[in-house]
Design brief:
Blueprint lengths: L6 H5 L5 H28 L4 H18 L7 E2 L5 H8 L5 H21 L3 H4 L4 H18 L1 H5 L2 E5 L5 E5 L6 H10 L6 H20 L11 H18 L8 H4 L16 H33 L5 H14 L9 E2 L1 H9 L5 H17 L9 H16 L1 H7 L4 H16 L2 H23 L1 E5 L2 E2 L15 E2 L4 E7 L7 H11 L6 E8 L5 H16 L3 E5 L3 H9 L11 E2 L2 H13 L1
Helix pairs in contact: 2-3, 2-15, 2-16, 2-17, 3-14, 3-16, 5-13, 5-14, 7-17, 7-18, 7-19, 10-11, 10-17, 11-17, 13-14, 13-15, 19-20, 21-22
Length: about 575
């Protein structure tokens, strides 16, 4: 294994006060940007708001400290909301299961980085990435509709009294909408008004304040939360109630929790492995995608393997403090770049800023209305949806469109684990189909034009005549399991009188796999039974080596292997005269 090291070590060489001031300003701004997102992601994931902030602090610090990029900002992201919510609300897993699954995912990520498999992650087909990202976006949007409309239901408290509580919805997409429709009579117009007010402020405040220094650095999401919070406080002064705030549902602790090691059993590891794998793959894809986008802006080149190691360590350590899965965040990374951040120090500062906010200002977060947080997540889901990209991909080949649509529907209707697994299987099947289509097997029975053939003796001008009772099989492309049966189909379709000599021309076969070798062996054995001679022509050194290792030449004499078609045809004439 090649040596891998954090980019921070390279960046500290020649580090000076000028660079530090830029990193300081970027870190402060990114910390402010990350605050509402961390709270919103924590609540939407089915855990408490401080868990989102703890994740941004611990994971953000580790990812910047150990990462393979200069500007990556790590923390909780919208992509994990769906899968975290599903784990936490599953009686078989719960919060303890989430902690264990996240740590397992961290170990998988570290292994991917240590064994230098970072480049492999980039080969996951683009339609799959877009499909499950769009599916996640729609699911996040759906989860927020209850808080946007202020829907409620009746429940019985500990004393037996009937009370009104926020609507609890099923975990699945269709079940949620059915639940919303059934409880639409509890619609709260004031709650909806706060959500729409916050949404409009988030959308338009960056445009309205873009010419005002300092104010134009603050994200629209923070303005939306501030305006929504003030609006709810004013409404309460005029007797308007029933708008839930964070304090109505959670009690926020302004401190970092102690490190706690969860109990882990082998049975639990086996049960959580599919979930851990999904978290790891999702985290790897998003972090490397974010790093690639950052490279395009900064003209830098990230170390994907070191980045995966950092993501892995972050996801191993963060759950010990009660955190949730984390990865590189594109929006916060771009905010860091746009505000002058150029080294991992900015990411470290952003984590310290969040820690200070947690310790000092978090009690005030209890006044934030849930409707305002819902507005933040609606914007997040819109930005994640990539609807323009989806629209563009719809013009691509039908196979790409089918992968995108299937992955999207599986993500929305079922869950992300199933979507990624089936999406990858479908993409692999389509890839094999495309490779099969690039390999052709043809039969030549009359003559060969030397101008079309590179393996003929140089200087030859006349066409090569193929003698009677001799057929030339031309294989153009890889000879692997996907096309091996083409040989059998071709022979069945030819019918008629069998030749005495078959020349198998392999000059354009870059590789052959075990199935291809097996089919070739079967062809030779069947031909021998029918009294037909087989000659191989133009076998490349690589294919020759593969055949030799498979003991292919045990059933075929060495003089039946010819360097090019001239020699093969001469050999065929000898067999025909015998």
């Amino acid at each position: 294994m090649q040596h891998i090291k954090p980019r921070l070590l390279d960046c500290l060489k020649g580090y000076n006060s000028e660079i530090f001031m830029k990193d300081l300003m970027a870190g402060l701004i990114v910390g402010i940007v990350a605050l509402p997102l961390a709270i919103a992601f924590g609540i939407a994931s089915g855990v408490t708001p401080e868990k989102g902030i703890i994740t941004a602090i611990v994971a953000g610090f580790i990812i910047s400290l150990l990462g393979g990029t200069k500007v990556q900002i790590g923390g909780p992201t919208g992509a994990f909301i769906v899968i975290i919510y599903g784990i936490v609300n599953n009686p078989a897993y719960g919060l303890h299961g989430l902690i264990v699954a996240t740590m397992m995912a961290g170990l998988i990520l570290v292994a991917l980085g240590v064994f230098r498999l970072g480049a492999v992650i980039k080969f996951i087909p683009y339609p799959i990435v877009i499909g499950f990202t769009a599916g996640i976006a729609l699911t996040i949007f759906t989860t927020q509709m209850g808080d946007v409309m202020g829907l409620t239901e009746e429940a019985v408290d500990k004393t037996g009294n009937l009370i009104t509580v926020p609507l609890k919805t099923p975990g699945d997409f269709i079940g949620k909408w059915i639940c919303y429709i059934e409880n639409i009579s509890t619609f709260n117009p004031w709650n909806f008004l706060v959500a729409m007010l916050s949404l409009l402020v988030i959308i338009f405040s960056p445009k309205m304040l873009r010419t005002i220094p300092v104010l134009n650095k603050i994200p629209g999401s923070l303005y939306g939360i501030l305006v929504g919070t003030v609006a709810v406080l004013l409404m309460k002064q005029y007797g308007i109630t029933g708008i839930d705030t964070i304090g109505d549902r959670f009690h926020i602790q302004s401190q970092l929790p102690s490190m706690v090691m969860p109990e882990i059993s082998w049975n639990m590891v086996q049960t959580l492995m599919p979930v851990a794998f999904t978290i790891a793959i999702l985290g790897a894809i998003e972090s490397l995608l974010s790093a690639t986008v950052a490279d395009g802006v900064t003209s830098d080149r990230h170390d994907s393997n070191m980045e995966l190691v950092a993501q892995g360590v972050a996801n191993i350590v963060t759950p010990l403090f009660g955190g949730i899965p984390a990865t590189g965040a594109i929006a916060r990374t771009m905010t860091n770049i746009n505000n002058g951040g150029r080294t991992p120090v900015a990411g470290l500062i952003h984590a310290v800023v969040l820690l200070a906010i947690l310790l000092v200002l978090m009690p005030y977060a209890e006044y934030i209305p849930m409707a305002a947080l819902a507005a933040v997540l609606i914007i997040v889901s819109y930005n994640m949806s990539g609807w323009r990209t989806v629209r563009g991909l719809m013009k691509n080949p039908k196979s790409d469109v089918s992968v995108l649509v299937v992955t999207f529907l599986l993500t929305v209707i079922f869950d992300l684990t199933i979507a990624i697994e089936i999406g990858l299987i479908l993409a692999c099947a389509l890839f094999i189909k495309r490779i099969m289509e690039t390999t052709e097997i043809s039969v030549i029975n009359d003559e060969i034009n030397p101008s079309d053939d590179a393996d003929l003796t140089s200087g030859r001008e006349e066409n090569l005549k193929i003698p009677a009772r001799c057929s030339v099989y031309e294989i153009n492309g890889p000879f692997f399991f996907g096309i091996a049966n083409k040989f059998d189909d071709l022979q069945k379709n030819l019918g008629g009188k069998k030749p005495k000599v078959r020349i198998i021309r392999m000059r354009k076969v870059p590789f052959i796999d075990s199935t291809g070798i097996h089919n070739l062996q079967n062809l030779i054995e069947m031909s021998h039974e029918d009294g037909i001679h087989i000659i191989l022509s133009g076998v490349s050194p690589k294919v020759h080596s593969q055949l030799e290792k498979a003991h292919f030449y045990d059933i075929m004499d060495s003089d039946h292997i010819c360097p090019h078609i001239d020699v093969a045809l001469e050999k065929a004439r000898e067999f025909l005269k015998a």
